[in-house]
Amino acid sequence: MTDSIVSIPEEPPAIVQLDPYPLLFHAKDNAFDVVADTKANRCKGWQRISLFTLYFQPSVLGVRGWGEVLRNALKAPERSLKAYFGLFPFQWSADWKQSFDALRGDNRLLVAPILQTLILNRAPRETIDWAKKVASWDFHRIVPCHFDSPINAQPYQFCQAFSFLEQPSIKAGVFNSNGSPLPEEDFKLLQKLDAGLNKLGILPSVKNRV
User: Domain ranges in the chain?
Assistant: First the structure.
């Protein structure tokens, strides 16, 4: 399935825990934090990385001014190369976990927000036809290239993940795999990129839902 479907685990996969430093780095709340290597902090870092990866900049993630970032770096307790010389521009809001929980959707199948906003909505009919073709196969597992893998899943669950391309029965918005709306505010940067790329002619226009 390559990148078309993902399922986001609450805890970091074993492979990214071989070197937990990146997880602990992103578990920091500011440049001065010294984060203990605990299961809770590894999960915190993983969940923030997941939000950053799939949205680029969710609404719960702010960026500090570079003047402040540089001043803080000079006083940071760790200024090694792997700590980016103490640079830490991230500013997570207190409710960031709610965005992760909405994105994860109890570990259900999901088309990544980037694909929902920038790619597959250019060809909704073709994408749905493809999803239905795949769902006609008799399978019980899906093996994505990212996040959880393999996933125990039925064909109807695969097809359901693409429901964001269909006309919803409730207010229009961007949907996760179980039909519940993902936070619209988390898509602001992706939508801005979409508008810019469309204006430059790099991306074709979005087509109406099926």
Answer: 14-104, 113-199
Q: What are 209's two structure tokens?
A: 């839902």
The string of DSSP letters for 139-201 reads: -SEE--SSSS-SEE--HHHHHHTTGGGSPPSSS---B-TTSPBP-GGGGHHHHHHHHHHHHTT
- Confidence band, pLDDT 50/70/90 cuts, at residue 176: low
| 202 DSSP 8-state letter | S
- Give Cβ neighbours of residue 92 (< 8 Å, ≥ 6 apart): 29, 48, 60, 61, 62
Beta carbons within 10 angstroms of residue 164's beta carbon:
25
Tell the burial category of 109 from Cβ atoms under 10 Å away from its Cβ (0-12, 13-18, 19+). buried
pTM for the full model? 0.87
Q: What is the pLDDT of residue 11?
A: 96
Distance of CA 125 to the CA centre of its chain: 24
> Residue 58, Cβ neighbours under 10 Å: how many?
27
Element (H, E) at 26: helix 21-26
Q: Which of 53, 22, 24 is nearest to 38 (CA)?
A: 24
HSE-up of 151 (CA within 13 Å, CB side)?
Answer: 22
Question: Nearest to residue 151, comparing CAs of 162, 159, 164, 139?
Answer: 139
